[in-house]
Write a structure and sequence with these properties.
The complex is a heterodimer of chains A (251) and B (311). Chain A is of the alpha/beta class. Chain A is built from 6 helices and 15 strands. Chain B is of the alpha/beta class. Chain B has one domain: Alpha-Beta Barrel (TIM Barrel). Helix content of chain B is 32%, strand content 19%. Chain B is globular. The chains are: A alpha/beta (251), B alpha/beta (311). At the A-B interface, strand 13 of A face strand 5, strand 6 and helix 8 of B.
Chain lengths: 251, 311
């Protein structure tokens, strides 16, 4: 892996963090939806590096946005400005160039991670963007200020009703799909992705989903990260993480 | 230390012989840990290695196991990939020509569900210019009710003898680390194997207590990584002592120190697997570490160190 300097790390809300890293070690300019493998510890425990989608990008640096959940992310959350960590990327297939002038971003929980980068990239190409953002509760909503600074309309739902509409994000999404020719990019938990795939297929909307999977290498070496699709198993690290919604298996 | 610069000029000889092959160094990439080179070659120059051992190839394509296929454990990784591979024909047509470009000896790992399938794969490989095969005997034998080939010394003897009859190039047998390991090792050698890979992953179980289910869809998996290194080192030592067999050590190597430990225990060469998954650049680093260590201990021919553990 290559070494990247930490530019900043900021803890967000209860258990999330935003980490900015020097982008020099990235092998090529990343595309939204692509990911990096990160490792901030030099010991063999935890054994594996961890995958993170690229959250934001500027001339000098890239950011990852993550939930502090297990041993890897809690070690990662301890690194500070000036420290170095190991990085590999950008990896995998990102989001494609949308075929329609309007794009709907659908985020569920920490599935918001790839979308700030995606929003900047789409804006630079003059796409119209609308963010649909569903979370458990108000305290799980992240980076809203950054999205609003891009002047992107944001529709919010929370499962407990503490912000936005109470309910699931697919409810307002289905209303919007009825009357507009749009492309959907979605990232979030699998049940949400399945619902988005169903809705977009009903409306013949082009849609692309970013999948998650347990991953060891991130490079197609171990074949460990498969997800079953209509065309058999795909390796999320190489043939994903972004796939066409039509390929997702119905449950 | 004062003559470091002088010593640095002495040319190290890392080469090792394996059956009819002479390898430039003892570092091989283990089966199933480097794809078919696509992703890895942008991070690692494969031509610096001693040899490559491919993902297991079967007569027919196999889709592999459902997910989850992997689980992380303390200093280890449990996997049940399920021998996913494109099958012999696609390997010969699309993959082998591409791998030949890497300019490094290639061993194809082969397996089958019965003796006939093994032989069909080996026969098909005769039409390629691969340098050798590694026979995976940790594979359920359909005709013997799913018992692994590798658990029965007599079956192994018959299988390897049949393969030896048609395969004149390098023939390596990859042992399971459990079961009658020494009897199987002896059978494989008596039947004509040129070398033994010691060893495959250890059968293992990871439990998801909330769901009350195995944490890998297939149920059991195979444990690899630094956690298994002392266990496999001991196997290498015992097999070397008992059989003086040519051994390729394989289990948990992540450093040059680990490589030398295996060589001293009795290995002629080693395979790196999980370490490459952790960091695709690890094999290059490990090679450098081997060179540094040899200079440090004033040994300039690596091959002289095989089995030199003082016990």
């Amino acid at each position: 892996m290559l070494k990247a300097s930490v530019i900043s790390q900021r803890l967000l809300k209860d258990n999330f963090a935003l980490l900015w890293l020097d982008k020099t070690p990235l092998k090529k300019p990343p595309r939204p939806g692509q990911f990096v493998m990160l490792r901030s510890w030099s010991t063999l425990e935890p054994l594996l590096a961890r995958p993170f989608s690229i959250h934001d990008l500027n001339e000098k640096a890239f950011a990852v946005l993550y939930q502090i959940k297990g041993r890897g992310t809690s070690l990662l959350s301890q690194v500070r400005r000036g420290q170095k960590l190991s990085v590999l990327g950008p990896l995998g297939k990102g989001f494609p160039t949308p075929p329609t002038p309007k794009v709907i971003l659908v985020a569920g929980g920490i599935g918001i991670a790839p979308f700030l980068f995606a929003a900047r990239w789409l804006k630079a190409q003059n796409y119209k963007i609308h963010l649909f953002y569903g979370a458990r509760s108000r305290k799980d909503l992240l980076r809203l200020t950054a999205f609003r600074a891009l002047k992107i309309p944001v529709t919010i739902t929370t499962e407990d009703g503490s912000a936005g509409h109470k309910g699931l994000i697919t409810t307002p999404l289905s209303q919007t799909l009825k009357d507009k020719a749009v492309t959907v990019f979605a990232c979030g938990p699998l049940p949400m992705l399945r619902a988005v795939a169903r809705l977009t297929q009903e409306h013949n909307t082009p849609a692309y989903l970013s999948l998650e999977s347990r991953m060891a290498c991130g490079l197609g070496l171990c074949l460990g990260c498969v997800v079953e699709t209509k065309h058999g198993y795909i390796h999320v690290c190489q043939e994903g993480p972004v796939i066409e919604a039509a390929n997702l298996l119905n449950d | 230390m004062e003559n470091t610069s002088k010593e640095a000029q002495v040319k190290l000889d890392l080469s090792v012989s394996l059956g009819p092959l002479r390898l430039q160094n003892p570092l091989l990439l283990a089966s199933g840990t480097w794809g078919f080179g696509e992703g890895l070659s942008s991070y690692l120059d494969l031509s610096i290695l001693g040899a490559l051992v491919t993902k297991g190839i079967s007569l027919h394509p196999r889709p592999g196991n459902p997910p989850p296929r992997i689980a992380e454990t303390p200093c280890g990784l449990v996997n049940a990939i399920g021998l996913e591979n494109p099958g012999l024909e696609i390997f010969k047509r699309d993959i082998w020509p591409r791998l030949a470009c890497f300019k490094v000896p290639l061993l194809v790992n082969v397996f089958g569900q019965n003796v006939e399938e093994y032989l069909a794969v080996v026969e098909g490989l005769l039409e390629t210019k691969i340098q050798g095969i590694e026979v995976n005997i940790s594979c359920p034998n359909v005709k013997k009710g799913g018992l692994q080939f590798g658990q029965d010394p007599k079956t192994v003897a018959l299988l390897i003898k049949d393969i030896r009859d048609i395969w004149p190039r390098l023939l390596v047998v990859k042992l399971s680390p459990v079961g009658p390991v020494f009897e199987v090792a002896e059978s494989a050698l008596d039947a004509g194997a040129d070398a033994l890979t010691v060893a495959n992953t250890y059968p293992a179980l990871v439990v998801d207590v909330i769901r009350r289910k195995p944490d890998i869809a297939a149920g059991f998996g195979g444990l690899s990584g630094p956690a298994i290194k002392p266990l496999t080192l001991r196997l290498v030592r015992e097999i070397y002592r008992r059989l003086k067999a040519p051994i390729i050590g394989c289990g948990g190597i992540t450093s040059g120190q680990d490589v030398l430990a295996y060589i001293l225990a009795g290995a002629k060469a080693v395979q790196i697997g999980t370490a490459t998954l952790l960091d695709p650049m690890a094999p290059a680093r490990i090679l450098e570490e081997i060179e540094d260590l040899l200079r440090q201990i004033h040994e300039y021919r690596l091959a002289q160190l095989t089995g030199e553990l003082q016990d």
